[in-house]
Amino acid sequence: MKLISGGICAAKGYKANGIHCGIRKNRTKKDLALIVSDVPAHAAAVYTTNLVKGAPLTVTKAHLANGTAQAIICNSGIANTCNADGIEKANAMCELVSNTIGVSADDVVVASTGVIGQPLNLEPIAEHIQELADGLSENSGEAAAEAIMTTDTVKKEIAVEFTISDTVCHIGGIAKGSGMIHPNMATMLVFITSDIAISPAMLQKALSGDIANTFNMLSIDGDTSTNDMVTVLANGLAGNDEITAEGEAFNTFMKALNTVTVNLCRIIAGDGEGATKLLECKVSGADTEQAAKLSAKSVVCSSLLKAAMFGADANWGRILCAIGYSGADVDVNKVDVSFRSTKGEIAVCRDGAGIPFSEEQAKEILLEHEIEILVKVGNGPYSACAWGCDLTYDYVKINGDYRT
Amino acid sequence: MKLISGGICAAKGYKANGIHCGIRKNRTKKDLALIVSDVPAHAAAVYTTNLVKGAPLTVTKAHLANGTAQAIICNSGIANTCNADGIEKANAMCELVSNTIGVSADDVVVASTGVIGQPLNLEPIAEHIQELADGLSENSGEAAAEAIMTTDTVKKEIAVEFTISDTVCHIGGIAKGSGMIHPNMATMLVFITSDIAISPAMLQKALSGDIANTFNMLSIDGDTSTNDMVTVLANGLAGNDEITAEGEAFNTFMKALNTVTVNLCRIIAGDGEGATKLLECKVSGADTEQAAKLSAKSVVCSSLLKAAMFGADANWGRILCAIGYSGADVDVNKVDVSFRSTKGEIAVCRDGAGIPFSEEQAKEILLEHEIEILVKVGNGPYSACAWGCDLTYDYVKINGDYRT
Lengths: 404, 404
Fold this sequence. Notes:
Two copies of one chain form a homodimer.
Chain A: E1 2-3, E2 14-19, E3 32-47, H1 55-63, E4 68-78, H2 86-101, E5 108-115, H3 123-134, H4 141-147, E6 156-164, E7 167-176, E8 189-194, H5 200-211, E9 229-234, H6 248-270, E10 278-286, H7 289-301, H8 303-310, H9 317-324, E11 336-341, E12 344-350, E13 353-354, H10 359-366, E14 370-376, E15 382-389, H11 393-400
Parallel strand pairs in A: 4-5, 8-9, 10-14
Antiparallel strand pairs in A: 1-6, 2-3, 3-4, 3-9, 6-7, 7-8, 10-15, 11-12, 11-14, 12-13
């Protein structure tokens, strides 16, 4: 398996584009993306568990009920959530795609991201949908990745190449997400494309299994979004024998998918609103998978620990504190904590109590941009990893007046 | 019932003092408090549910097993938590009090607040305990309130006078708490004194019942502290017939206690680390008490909403979002939202969707220091109130390098 370029168009038979259509006032910011498969693809998705759901998710869920899709349209700027006419407008977006590129409206995945509760104006989309379609290309995946960004400061794309029984297959993905990220059985917006042949049921199984250890272990700010969604399309153009059951081929696909999703998690966490650091909390030695996951996620969610990491302050007491209130069944008197970065590793807590360490060395390690927080909670067999970021002045700035 | 001055010494038979003994380097900051009842008092307490517990809590819990106490000692600066010798040192603090003022060590409540994981130096306490005791006075409650402060910017004290069958009774309280506040069956440090006569069992019942609607509905930053504790002493010097069962007298005491605790909640939330605003989320119309509480608490815990309030931005979508992921069983299509302050009230969301409103008027309302967020989730009979504060640059600053 190897990482390759090409993002959402890395797999065979996908074209994409992204433009500024006018939903956003800022003309330099693209706000409309389109991704199309040459042939109908099997599709699967997971959605936010927030009771407040964006209208596009309701429409997408209905369209994916038969396990197939061929196109994805996504706008940024307006979430199309908490609007009385939301469903109507999400359906209209699918119709516009259908009328322009000739795929069935039922085969369109629709997504929106941005401000909640402000009406979505369809006019800019209707006026520019032809321009968007005309620009569809295998080389424009980057434009699509840019068009779905909101407060993101970097575009998020990744792709891998791997083989199943000597057949070369690909998975590519793009994501948007920077704030309101605390996935719970779903996540921010992620679109994944593959040329693998796989049944809809196995595709859903792969996706649902994967996100439990990837996007659901990611938190920027503890706020589960109303518009979270991950969709994956698999158009079968790689030519492998269709995967219809568990086995070696399915495991290979799962591994490739996991490479894509873990990379997207790391990129999203590192680009959290206002973030200066990516935090990876790796918990080991737990007696149960739940204890490992609860502990890891609680640490990356702690506002106090996040602020300490911004200040490169080795305030490990806040890690113990976060594990203590996480609900995880662990013996807090057996917890060891170390910090690690490219500058080295330093142990700061052994058996739940502080040990002498060089504050100078700790500071040097914590001044790096990617920080690993290594926590051993006992001698059990379970481990987990969670991703997050530091809490900074810029998070407050970005969210103090987001709508203007 | 009326609010009176006097704080922790407002009730009959209590003396207090607070000094700088040297646990903190800053000589202008008091760091050691002592509160003493003239006679042994009935006592009750609730403690943090964090698995990581400060050593003082373990010692206090043992001392309160018989339902009586006579003195409270509390230092700030060091939490005496996650230290191998923590219990030993907490016991030593009680012995110092016992040897100096002649109460039994078993009747001493001990508490510490400050940095986790750094050893507590007993020397400054031993050297200054006599000075602390010599200054005990009915007029020094304020000094005790100051000595337990950490990042607090204002001292927190309150007192009420009320009557039970024509007997005048009093309750006074002080609190410290500014960060690491997200109580769960307990809270930050609160010491309450009363001259009422009440059995230990009824005192505990009153306290446990009260905090479910007061301190457990308060959040500054989502981090449940390791050293949370609320203790109440009742020395009986008011001369009322001892309360030993539910009834009118018990209800009057509960109401007075609630006045003290709600006021302390409001003061704590308004003085949250870096806070510029007190947020009160009042949820009504819920079908269950749990739905009302979960909704209210989720709103005041949302980092995004807290940042929006800092910016005086009427971003009500974040309120809907927070209710949606709160776990509360509510129909999000029936949610109404208004903002209220001394500048007026403005409705911004009706039946889960935005309604036109004056951004200018909303800004004027939200620029005030005390903001009520009024949420109606349906037509059910249950309501709840939660307290919080905005998320500001200063929260990040305070916590980016707390230990230095």
